[in-house]
């Protein structure tokens, strides 16, 4: 049995940490990260202000990402996923393979839309998001004005498109909550969904 979930987020919303912690708690769980599919800097477009346009789908090898996800779905057992059971796993969910796909631009990409059992979206208010972003080191480094000029506007555009898509069921999570609280909520939600699949 396969269970696929998406963890999407504003920049620095905590999706990678959440995904890693979930992986340690869930049986047969694997992660595919959108960050692994960025094009090299030389292939990323630059706008008229000199900003590298990283926060758009064109900055990513999305075809390769789709192939990776579909290959995993075809044969999760051969993907190198660790099949040790976490201690607290109920018998009900032991024979399931779980894939977490985490990234920042996942829900507006049509070829992936049919694949998910659950979709989560971590949000942050502007000030907190900007603060967290400023504490991270990026390669290449953010140019002055990049967050306000490119990153935040693209996030708002993307989130707006999501909210306008009535058919898209997304669970919005408050990224300012503690990691423990978010983890507890998402873990419980996944277990509940897995139990429903078994009924």
From TrEMBL:
Name the species this protein comes from.
Answer: Pteruthius melanotis
**Catalytic activity annotation:** beta-D-ribosylnicotinate + ATP = nicotinate beta-D-ribonucleotide + ADP + H(+); beta-nicotinamide D-riboside + ATP = beta-nicotinamide D-ribonucleotide + ADP + H(+)
For this protein, the parts annotated as crossing the membrane are none
Keyword annotations: ATP-binding, Kinase, Magnesium, Metal-binding, Nucleotide-binding, Pyridine nucleotide biosynthesis, Transferase
User: InterPro entries from the entry?
Assistant: P-loop_NTPase
Q: Which family does it belong to?
A: Belongs to the uridine kinase family. NRK subfamily.
Question: What metabolic or biological pathway is this protein involved in?
Answer: Cofactor biosynthesis; NAD(+) biosynthesis
Name of the protein in question: NRK1 kinase
One GO term of the cellular component aspect?
Answer: cytosol
Lineage of source species? Eukaryota, Metazoa, Chordata, Craniata, Vertebrata
BP-aspect Gene Ontology terms: NAD+ metabolic process; pyridine nucleotide biosynthetic process
Kindly give the Pfam families that the UniProt entry links to this protein: AAA_18
User: Do you know which PANTHER family this protein is assigned to?
Assistant: URIDINE KINASE (PTHR10285)
> Which GO MF terms are attached to this record?
ATP binding; metal ion binding; nicotinate riboside kinase activity; ribosylnicotinamide kinase activity
Name the domain of life. Eukaryota
